[in-house]
Amino acid sequence: MRFWRGCKRRAHGHRTEGHTFKNRVIAGRQNGRGISRGQSGYPVLPIALTGTEDRGIISNLKRFRRSKIKAVAGELFYIEIPKGQGREEAMRNATDEIMCQIAAKLPESYRGFYKNYPRVRELEQK
């Protein structure tokens, strides 16, 4: 606890702008998180979670079995959003970058809207 009290900046966790459909794929972005990331000055750490589908978790809970949840983290990056003209475009780009970073860490069958995004393919190559 002393470590966290001594930090001038604290970690913030947020879920992504997108959401998942019942068939376990991510949907498109919703602008918003990119704004708070750009204004906060905090780095973004994209983390892709798999194994958290409601169907699997609930059935495992009913049978007292452990669920296999996998978390894959990407690299830290920063987002800058300018004030004034071009802000909307920068927010869209920031949100897309966050979602593409996460989608690149997910199995291809989970990517949904981001399955054929050129930026996701580029991140996979790295």
Features:
2 strands, 39% helix, disordered N terminus, mainly alpha, elongated
Account of the protein in words:
The protein is mostly helical. It has one domain. The chain is about 40% helix and about 5% strand. It has five helices and two strands; from the N terminus they run H-H-E-H-E-H-H. The protein has a two-stranded antiparallel ribbon. It is elongated, with a radius of gyration of 17 Å. The chain starts with a helix and ends with a helix. Mean pLDDT is about 75; it is low at about 1-5.
Low-confidence stretches: 1-7
Proportion of residues in extended strands = 5-15%
Number of E-state strands: 2
The biggest sheet, with number of strands, parallel, antiparallel or mixed sense and barrel status, is: 2 strands, antiparallel
Helical percentage: 25-40%
Broad structural category: mainly alpha
Query: What is the ordering of alpha helices and beta strands?
Result: HHEHEHH
For the termini, the CA-CA separation is 36 Å
Q: Rg from C-alpha positions?
A: 17 Å
Strand order of the largest sheet: 1-2
Coarse shape: elongated
- Counted by DSSP, the helix tally is 5
Number of domains: 1
Q: Residue-averaged pLDDT, rounded?
A: 76
In short:
The chain is mainly α and 126 residues long.
